[in-house]
Amino acid sequence: MTEEITESEQSFSEDVSFSEAAPVKGQGRMDAAWGSQDGDDSGTAQVSSNTASVGYVFEQIYKPWNGSLNPRWMRNWAILRHHVLGIFRKGHRPWGLPTKLFMVLVFIASLGDVGLTLLSALIGSPELHSMWGVNRDNLYGHVFGFFPRNMLYYPILAALLVGGVISEDRYHGTSAMYFSRPISRFDYVMMKYISVAIIQAFVVLLTLMIYYFVEIIAMGRGWAWIIDTFPLFLAAFVGGIILVITYTSIGLGLSSVSRGKFFPGIGLVAIVLGSKTLAVLVSNLFERDIMYLLSPYDCLAHVGQALVGTQTTYDQYSWTWSFASLVLMNAFFLYILSSRVASMEVTRE
Amino acid sequence: MSDSDYIIETTNLSKSYGPHVALENLNLKVTKGATGLLGPNGAGKSTFLKTILGLIQATSGDGTVLGHDIRTDGAAIRSRIGYMPEYDALNPDMEAIYQVKYSGELLGMNPIVAMSRAHEVLQYVGLGEQRYRNIGSFSTGMKQATKLACSIIHDPELIIADEPSNGLDATAREFMISTLQNMVHNGNRSVMMASHLMDDVERVCDSMVLLHKGKLAAQGRIEDLKDIDREIEIHVWGNASKLEEKMVSIGLDVRREGRIMRVLHEDEDTTTKILSCAAEVGSQIRRMHEYEASLEDLFIVIMENLGYEVKTSEDLLRSPVQARQVDAPSHMGGGS
Q1: What predicted TM-score, i.e. pTM, was given to this entire model?
Q2: Where are the domains of chain A?
Q3: Most buried of A96, A188, B114, B147, CB within 10 angstroms?
């Protein structure tokens, strides 16, 4: 290969040889990189074109919105969805993990009689079925049984649910977000009340429904049996509604007087279990049963017994006394709830 | 100006809590644009805001907000305004995007629309990259921005911002102020801003309403109101005390801070009088210029004057000298 060095290459650097056999000293590349005789004296810098991304530049542009706002029912639906879907999905009310876990546990535990009904149907055991299958006493027991349901399950679940529903709005100031919107105090309370009641109903009433319909399917019950037992189921269902309403009223009433969720929660459990304990103590010590009228659970049980038609515990008194007591308890706590919510501020607490 | 140009209008609006009068015969006309709501603690600002939001019933008097009666159309008013509360109003366990979305749903927005709009407004308030973070992890400035996003999700005609720059550091405060300015100037929205930070109010607002003890102390354009106390500032070298005495003796109203004096600019002859006095006592006036009062100066002067008895804004605007002499004490230039 002949060495052909052009004129321009010669002028580039006279010391540099570009022949194939020339020793590699790095000088040629250095010259190419850092210097040449072209343009060194020029006052204009030669720079590469700017093709690199310069990143994101924040530009604040106000975008108008020309949509229309939906009426009252949509706003109320939003409150309901926010609370109820918060149990199941992200992006809604953030219920605490213990609350969700406990709810799942209580739901599964409440289905204990369903499991045993299925088992009795599978193994064909009439003894087991007579203990756990659908009948008057078991329907009552599913909703109103004291141990474990109304001792460990439902009051504690209600306490976990209602504890922060109103009080946390007061604590975080989120009440301002509600009341600076076209939401009335009544709608605010009503939708929160219904939301909490629906979540409790998932556990108390949904499991009752599952229990009843599993019996029909597993045992192959016919119309005659359904016609016989459906009123009992309905009575238990109505009793369950009263139970959910009562626990919700007491819990929300306590939540409205607090700024945290501990006091309302522990207060609800204390009222339900404490008054029951007190009624038992007074009954045992003084042989007077009248104290049960102050116990929400005893009154609920009494009304439930009357509705379902089982043997009443306090048969020396009419169930209507218990019902009247429940009405008074609900009215009292709803009054507290409404008066406290009416005093919630928008500007400051 | 026609009635439709007023976004807030009240006539003899009063609100009493038992014997305590929180608002007394308030006659206000707030125009479109940015208006500052000023007043010391207990002046009635919160009561005023609650009344115009339709949350509490006025004891007497009438009022309209965006053409809606505050007595009967509270829900309609709250649909058309955006309220940004002073205190925390956010759930710290929620992500910002869902909190803003929920605030839109509470106004009646469809959930899908609310979500889409939540992205837009969070972008607008500078939280585009932070929108999926829990609010509990936000700084104070980010929380304020989230509250602002909640209040503007439905593109309200009037935004009521209660202490929007409270507790913010310099950068966050600057951003909040510029955002409010942007909404007014580029978004063509109206803002009513309650604040104790006069600089912020002055930067955002064209007009102001000053409440004191439940009464209207002053109302109007800030520039106009600042004119009520035009002063000439002079920097004196030598015989400052003598010069002060001389100027006071010929009836000039002088405030002195060492070598710097501010003389009330009463008429065209004021400068001549100052120079004559300086020549007589042998003082050098090294510098003389019109002192431009800040809103804070205005606020202090008005509140000093009104600490004794509230006068109307007409009094304040009609004649500065006369206004000062209505009921301010003599050491402040008053006649009583």
Answers
A1: 0.80
A2: 72-105+139-202+228-342
A3: B147
